[in-house]
């Protein structure tokens, strides 16, 4: 496991300057950390500093089942809380729905449900045609998924879609109980619906179901730390530096004398607990943001990179005007608010002291070895004829799933998860007490509605303003409700009924006026209880054609536009989040952006890099002309200006080379643009 070890690099061993600084040690940041410290440049290994706001992973996080308790107030030390507001179309009547994310080394992977679902091939094959960005197609990304994986399930590990030599252990949930009646019912019910019972990781998008795959091995969680830091940490001690309990409060920018493009030179930090200002750290190459899709755009904005108008309203001087920062927020929303009762105990063992005893005696097949005892997962495309209004259709165009179905052995979710007020929740769920139940989960895989993240304040210690804007595209409501209806039909089928499993029949109090489990009832339930599945994404999206997509924030190699020395490498870069679950995608973004960085600094690639820089320069010049050029500049002869800019860029590149040679020199005297406020 990742726990029981102090990952903090002693203060006196920290340098003032690194080759790279990674902000945020979740799946994306940890994956990137391993990748960058595994290569050397000019005969010297890179020195990389990972800065994480949270601390070391606590002992309890090794035990998968304790995931169920996250989201409770007692677990504040590993969480960021993000209060958000309803737009009036969802969480009806709820006072303060809240979502949360990981604030601990390993980020979400240190306590999450650990499900590993990559999405399907079309999710990745659509990226180039839709964004113009190359290098993200399914063939490429499958190679990376498989490279990192060490699959333990004999049922799938040799089928050609899984890796066996990576450091990320993956297993099927409760494999030991795989032959029980419950799993058999799941298999038969899928087949009755015309769905195959087989591995969902072969790239197909729908029509299949299987057991959940999750990042566990031998009964313990395999977090980003276990998989990508622990195995390498001792051997790479001089390269892998970690600073925990430290918030990056700003990215520092300088204006190079010979270039119009600001350059990132380092970061400013503060103590996470007290807010006391901390050290500044500088980079000779780049800062990489992997702070998660809610904190990454916040950090960009407090640093002066984002929508200029919004920044001005918060008293921040815009340094780089990127209107897309914080926009395009989406996830896999859905409901966990209906239940099956009468579940046979062989499928759902009791959570007793003897289970805990078994676990700590090393019997890792016990109940504690599984996060939510999830029985199964399936991906389904709905019949268009059933839908109340015409749907767009990416779904048909790419043959995607509309919804994911899962069954989990958890009794629904607490107030913060569901976003429903406690009194309503109690009235609805008290009838479940003492019952042997499964929760029925339906999640939308390709959400259309988009929300945003804005600043509440200029402090990174405060949560940003998060607005999900659910159901602003009404077809999302139809999709989740119809998905639920079809799942209910499946759950009423003979394989479940013959085991005595039936649907919980107490109606949700606010939806009593509709016939139980009718489409109208489900639409009502969905409006009240839809919640984020914590798969936040899209807030610094990738796009390689800025003419068509002015909201693009990063290019296909994860470089932030209109600034040098800065990349975003977490789920923020999704223009459209792949279906499935987002942790695998976060590992991918860390890994793929890491590949690009390694390539970009490879000497053999110098010519290519020059070309890219020139391209970037040209794009920048076009942009300056299109948007922001003051009147007198616009009148300049275009050709002349282009030449001037290119010349400046060459000088800048020369300067960069000189700086690289001086890498060993300690702190330089930067002309930092960023105003310190921490
Ligand atoms: C309760 C829960 C259950 C989930 N279950 C699953 C699941 O079963 N399967 C799945 O695939 N996905 C699941 N997810 C989602 C998954 O965990 C995330 O998609 C994934 O962790 C995202 O990785 P990331 O690296 O982009 O960001 P994060 O995991 O959010 O990591 C970002 C890190 O950056 C740090 N940070 C933020 N701001 C700063 C700053 N200014 N300075 C320093 N550090 C900073 C944070 O503390 C955090 O540790 C779940 C998430 C939650 C919250």
Describe this structure in words.
Helix 1 packs parallel to helix 17 (582-600), helix 14 (475-491) packs across helix 16 (519-529) and helix 18 (606-628) packs across helix 20 (638-661). The strands form eight sheets. Strands 1, 4, 14, 15, 16, 17 and 27 form a seven-stranded mixed beta sheet that branches. The protein has a seven-stranded mixed beta sheet with strand order 9-10-21-22-23-20-26. The protein has two domains: 1-166 and 221-331 and 448-470 and 535-613, 3-Layer(bba) Sandwich (FAD/NAD(P)-binding domain); 175-210 and 333-444 and 471-529, Cholesterol Oxidase, domain 2 (2-Layer Sandwich), CATH 3.30.410.40. A hairpin with a 5-residue loop joins strand 16 and strand 17. It has 678 residues and is an alpha/beta fold. The protein contains 20 helices and 27 strands. Mean pLDDT is 86; it is low at 175-179 and 662-671. Flavin-adenine dinucleotide binds next to helix 1, strand 6, strand 15, helix 8 and helix 17.
What share of the residues does DSSP label as strand, in percent? 15-25%
Structural class: alpha/beta
Mean model confidence by pLDDT: 86
Tell me the CATH architecture of the largest domain. Answer: 3-Layer(bba) Sandwich
Biggest sheet overview: 7 strands, mixed
Rg from alpha-carbon coordinates: 25 Å
> For this structure, what is the CATH class of the largest domain?
Alpha Beta
Task: Provide the number of structural domains.
Answer: 2
Ordered list of secondary-structure elements with their pairings:
Layout: E1 17-23, H1 27-36, E2 40-41, E3 44-45, E4 48-51, E5 79-83, E6 98-102, H2 121-125, H3 127-131, H4 138-148, E7 149-151, E8 168-172, H5 181-192, E9 196-197, E10 208-210, E11 213-214, E12 216-217, E13 220-221, H6 224-228, H7 230-233, E14 240-243, E15 246-254, E16 263-271, E17 277-289, H8 295-302, E18 305-306, H9 308-313, E19 320-321, E20 334-341, H10 353-360, E21 376-380, H11 394-398, E22 403-408, H12 415-418, H13 422-429, E23 437-444, E24 452-454, E25 465-467, H14 475-491, H15 494-497, E26 502-503, H16 519-529, E27 566-568, H17 582-600, H18 606-628, H19 631-634, H20 638-661
Helix pairs in contact: 1-17, 14-16, 18-20
The chain binds flavin-adenine dinucleotide.
């Amino acid at each position: 496991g990742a726990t029981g070890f102090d990952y903090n690099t002693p203060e006196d061993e920290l340098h003032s300057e690194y080759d790279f600084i990674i902000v945020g040690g979740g799946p994306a940041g940890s994956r990137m950390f391993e990748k960058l410290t595994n290569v050397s440049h000019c005969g010297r290994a890179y020195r990389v500093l990972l800065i994480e706001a949270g601390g070391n992973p606590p002992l309890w996080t090794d035990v998968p089942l304790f995931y169920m308790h996250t989201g409770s107030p007692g677990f504040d030390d590993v969480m960021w809380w993000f209060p958000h507001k309803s737009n009036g179309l969802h969480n009806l009547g709820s006072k303060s729905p809240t979502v949360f994310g990981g604030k601990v080394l390993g980020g979400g992977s240190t306590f999450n449900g650990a499900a590993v679902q990559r999405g399907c091939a079309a999710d990745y094959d659509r990226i180039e045609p839709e964004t113009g960005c190359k290098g993200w197609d399914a063939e490429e990304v499958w190679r990376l998924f498989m490279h990192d994986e060490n699959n333990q399930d004999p049922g799938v590990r040799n089928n050609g879609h899984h890796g066996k030599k990576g450091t990320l252990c993956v297993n099927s949930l409760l494999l030991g109980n795989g032959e029980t009646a419950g799993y058999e019912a799941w298999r038969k019910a899928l087949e009755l619906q015309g769905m195959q019972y087989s591995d969902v990781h072969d790239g197909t998008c729908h029509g299949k179901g299987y057991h959940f795959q999750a990042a566990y091995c031998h009964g313990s969680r395999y977090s980003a730390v276990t998989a990508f830091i622990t195995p390498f940490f001792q051997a790479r001690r001089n390269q892998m530096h970690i600073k925990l309990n430290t918030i990056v409060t700003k990215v520092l920018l300088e204006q190079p004398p010979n270039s119009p493009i600001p350059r990132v030179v380092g970061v400013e930090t503060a103590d996470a607990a007290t807010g006391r200002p901390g050290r500044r750290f500088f980079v000779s190459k780049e800062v990489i943001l992997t702070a998660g899709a809610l904190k990454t755009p916040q950090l960009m904005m407090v640093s002066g990179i984002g929508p200029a108008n919004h920044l001005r309203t918060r008293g921040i001087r815009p340094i780089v005007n990127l209107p897309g920062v914080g926009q395009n927020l989406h996830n896999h929303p859905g409901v966990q608010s209906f239940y099956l009762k009468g579940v046979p105990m062989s499928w759902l063992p009791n959570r007793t002291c003897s289970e805990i005893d078994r676990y700590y005696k090393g019997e890792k097949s016990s109940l504690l070895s599984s996060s939510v005892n999830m029985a199964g997962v399936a991906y389904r495309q709905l019949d268009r004829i059933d839908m109340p209004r015409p749907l767009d259709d990416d779904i048909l165009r790419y043959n995607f799933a509309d919804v994911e179905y899962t069954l989990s052995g958890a009794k629904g979710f607490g107030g913060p998860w569901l976003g429903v007020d406690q009194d309503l929740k109690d009235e609805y769920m008290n009838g479940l007490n003492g019952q042997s139940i499964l929760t029925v989960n339906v999640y939308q895989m390709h959400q259309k509605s988009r929300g945003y993240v804005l600043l509440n304040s200029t402090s990174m210690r405060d949560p940003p303003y998060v607005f999900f804007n659910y159901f602003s595209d009404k077809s999302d409501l139809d999709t989740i409700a119809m998905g639920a209806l079809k799942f209910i039909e499946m759950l009423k089928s003979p394989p479940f009924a013959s085991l005595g499993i039936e649907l919980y029949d107490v109606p949700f109090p606010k939806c009593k006026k509709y016939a139980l489990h009718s489409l109208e009832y489900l639409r009502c339930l969905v409006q009240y209880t839809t919640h984020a599945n914590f798969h936040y994404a899209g807030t610094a999206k990738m796009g390689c054609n800025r003419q068509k997509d002015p909201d693009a924030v990063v290019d296909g190699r994860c470089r932030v536009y209109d600034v040098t020395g800065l990349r975003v490498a977490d789920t923020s870069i999704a223009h459209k989040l792949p279906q499935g679950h987002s942790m695998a995608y976060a590992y991918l973004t860390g890994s793929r952006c890491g590949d690009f960085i390694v390539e970009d600094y490879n000497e053999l690639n110098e010519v290519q890099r020059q070309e890219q820089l020139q391209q970037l320069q040209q794009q920048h010049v076009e942009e300056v002309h299109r948007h922001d050029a003051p009147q007198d500049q616009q009148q300049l002869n275009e050709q002349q200006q282009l030449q001037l800019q290119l010349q400046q860029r060459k000088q800048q590149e020369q300067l960069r080379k000189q700086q690289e040679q001086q890498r060993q020199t300690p702190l330089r005297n930067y002309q930092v643009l960023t105003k310190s406020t921490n």
